[in-house]
Write a structure and sequence with these properties.
The structure is a homodimer. The first copy, chain A, has about 180 residues and is mainly alpha-helical. In chain A, helix 2 packs across helix 6. The two termini of chain A are about 35 Å apart. The relative contact order of chain A is 0.11. At the A-B interface, helix 2, helix 6 and helix 7 of A face helix 2, helix 6 and helix 7 of B. Chain A binds a DNA duplex (23 and 23 nucleotides) through helix 5.
DNA sequence: TATTGTTATACTCTATAACTATA
DNA sequence: TATAGTTATAGAGTATAACAATA
């Protein structure tokens, strides 16, 4: 039985700018997602020796239902085009994608998923969603909807602060050590 | 304004084993934590050129209030002792920790945080908790407590399934593409 | 023999910068 | 000049395996 991550009694004195509940919610969610992603990786490992980005790129290509430019995949994965090149190299070497020239603009390369690649997606997606159900299915619909709404509200706030310079909070009030 | 990640209308037919809300809650929380960690990394970058593991190791040493064995840090960070060696190398090169021989067992090495290391912790912790407050402070206490309890319940379930062999879910019912 | 830590090595992921070839 | 992609290079992070020193 897992136990919540909690801050100590001295926390409000040490960090007056943050409520214990905000710090605890952040810590518990980071732990949860870390554990969840580890379980996902464990279940995926039996399917193919691909990185999370590799599986995700295949799922993107499968969902697009048409070949995509390398830069389109880079955008969705939030990585540089240079990083995509080596990722595509790996996927192509395993036979999961092919490169084809763009018909009208010869600078561009179209990435197309192969049948073997689609088979990987067909096997991976049920595993991913089975894990989601196994884990998050312990909550009821109302709780899940509250998670979704809460997560969205926090992400909105994060998007707002991400464009500002990082704030310089007040100093830590280091507890005296006896 | 961020928008919730939602699955499509065809989801229940395609993945009968998973409810849309479970899949959506998982996706939204992964996105949230990813965004949150990115914001944390952005704010930490102004303090010292250290990795997340580096900051965490310093915080562990600071919190322990006494020198720790290398293996103790490895345990808490969930990495091998070989990985800790190079992490400690980095921290020692920057003057944030020192290695000292264990007084009675000469196989062991005690890692001690320096004043410079403590200064880093003193500057990093307020930034971390300020970010937690900025982001999670948009929810009220009741919502935050629900997050903490829900995250703990899910982590318990994850701990339970982690020891079992990964399940092999039913096949995906691929939607017909026109 | 078992334990602690280090070294050697390798692999993945990602980034920046310079480059090619188009447009 | 600008764009799409590749190559070259580098660095972080982590792992496994072999090893040395010590218990």
């Amino acid at each position: 039985m897992a136990v919540p991550v909690r801050v100590g009694a001295g926390f409000p004195a040490e960090f007056p700018g943050c409520t214990p509940l905000a710090a605890e919610a952040a810590a518990n969610l980071v732990r949860l997602v870390s554990d969840y992603l580890a379980e996902l990786a464990r279940r995926r490992r039996n399917i193919a020796p691909l990185s999370a980005s590799g599986f995700e790129a295949l799922a993107i290509l499968d969902g697009a239902a048409e070949p995509l430019m390398a830069s389109a995949i880079a955008e969705r994965l939030l990585v540089t085009t240079a990083s995509i090149t080596s990722l595509i190299d790996t996927l192509a070497a395993r036979g999961y994608v092919t490169r084809a020239p763009h018909p009208s603009d010869r600078r561009k390369v179209l990435i197309e998923i192969t049948d073997a690649g689609r088979e990987i997606v067909d096997r991976v997606l049920p595993v991913v969603y089975r894990a989601a159900q196994d884990a998050f299915g312990v909550l009821d619909d109302e709780q899940l909807e509250a998670f979704i709404q809460g997560a969205t509200a926090i992400r909105s706030e994060l998007a707002a602060v991400a464009s500002k310079p990082p704030p310089t909070p007040g100093p830590r009030v280091r507890p005296r050590t006896p």
